[in-house]
Amino acid sequence: MDRHYVFLDVDGTLVTYENKLPESAVTAIKLAQKNGHKIYTVTGRSKAEMYEEILAIGFDGYIGGNGSYIESDGKVIAERSLTYDGCRKIVDWLHGKGLEFYLESNEGLYGSEYFAEKAQKTIQIYSARKGKEDADRLTIKDVFPEMIFGEDLYREKVNKISFLLDHYNDYLEAREVFSDFKVGTWGGAGETALFGDVALENIDKQTALDLLMTHLKKSNKHTIAFGDAKVDIPMLEYCTTGVALGNGGPEIKEMADYITDDVENDGLYNAFKHFGLI
């Protein structure tokens, strides 16, 4: 059996959008590792959001910040983050616009003064769009259980900064002001987007996988990627086989080589079995 390198998005792929981790996914990962396959998480989450339940699975590596940070076998392969001055520039602009936000770093998630209050409804809308029945009961504490408030928001080693969109024009203006950064949206397409984010240019999940496999001196011949959203598409394009979760969006399903079941309906386990990983 050939050893495969398996790359898993986290939210909507490994766990539900309420941070529920299916036991079948844990079983699949451990069985695949026992069979000699290497399993990596590839996520927009900073390491501070990789809570103990996830870390306890025991992955072979971790790629965070949508590619800005890479670990393999416990060693840091690459780390690119906003500078202190870059962070301060973005934070000052967001404060000036009256937009709430949070900093994503490996040391922690740092929320702005009124983020918990103002983001709750937005998070509920986001979860409802993902088909969650009890979305209207979610709190920021449910989604970001370890977010830190009241700390200095001028920081180093920040992977990216996500902010609430009051209007779509907030994103358009941010793109103009921060033309030397990568400015995107999430939580919806076009004017339905709920959040904007600012990160370093020329970083995505595909560039991270290429850097990792080059470091490991491996080709992408035996690689499989799993995802559910547009941000995962570059990763699926890089790998020999791309798998979309059943709960994924139409764009990733259209380009995937295979569509498995929803994350909470044993999607990972069933796909691992389908591809002979377990």
Automatic annotation (TrEMBL):
Pfam families the UniProt entry points to: Hydrolase_3
InterPro entries: Cof (IPR000150), HAD-like_sf (IPR036412), HAD-SF_hydro_IIB (IPR006379), HAD_sf (IPR023214)
Superkingdom of the organism of origin: Bacteria
Transmembrane segments: none
Record's keyword annotation contains Transferase: no
Keyword Lipid biosynthesis found: no
Keywords from the named record: Hydrolase
GO molecular function: hydrolase activity
Protein name per its UniProtKB record: Cof-type HAD-IIB family hydrolase
Organism annotation: Alkalibacterium indicireducens
